[in-house]
Amino acid sequence: MSDLIEDGKFVELTYEVIDQKTGHVLSAVEFPLGYVHGYNDVLAPYVLKQLEGKAAGDVIEVPIDCNKIFGPRDESLVFTDRIENVPEEYRKLGTTITMENAKGEVKNFIVTRMDDETLTVDGNNPLCGREVIFKLKIVTVRDATEEEIEAGGPVEEEAPDLGGAIKLPF
Q: What is the average pLDDT score of the chain?
């Protein structure tokens, strides 16, 4: 019998976030993410609850209304400015810009649009206003070690000294 996900189990999984409306994959984690179930809140509590009782090899799909997690979209967090007013290093789509208001509160904005004359940044979470499917593939389920429980996830071991025996292709 295989191990089932419950508190104290070390779990590795991969996932995709899929837009329900378009079917497009919005983000994906292909290298397994490891955590200790019940000791680490690496995923939202609702998602963690859906994983309980599942085993390695299982694939689950969890529908999520992102408005419930991130709140509704706030158009007051979208700003457009003339491109010459924006420092050169921020003139690239997808760039994250951290800004601070007069109260000292910090917020991240993402460059979402740009043309020859203007640049737009958006302070909303990119998932605001979307309904998504969180598709998770469970790769590993096993008893967590004491070190993993204490750390809440994988414990990095020192890499072995290979003495230059392996040549990487890059």
A: 87
Q: Mind spelling out the 3-state secondary structure of the chain?
A: CCCECCCCEEEEEEEEEEECCCCCEEEEEEEEEEEECCCCCCCCHHHHHHHCCCECCCEEEEEEEHHHHHCCCCHHHEEEEEHHHCCHHHCCCCCEEEEECCCCCEEEEEEEEECCCEEEEECCCCCCCCEEEEEEEEEEEEECCHHHHHHCCCCCCCCCCCCCCCCCCC
Q: Which residue has the higher pLDDT, 124 or 69?
A: 124
Domain count, the chain: 2
Is residue 22 situated within a structural domain? Answer: yes
pLDDT over 60 (residue 134): yes
How many Å apart are CA 42 and CA 52, to the nearest integer? 15
Structure token digits, residue 38: 């019940």
* 165 part of a folded domain: no
Domain limits for position 105: 84-122
- Report the pLDDT value the prediction gives residue 41, as an integer from 0 to 100: 79
**Does pTM surpass 0.90?**
no
Residues 100 and 145 in one domain: no
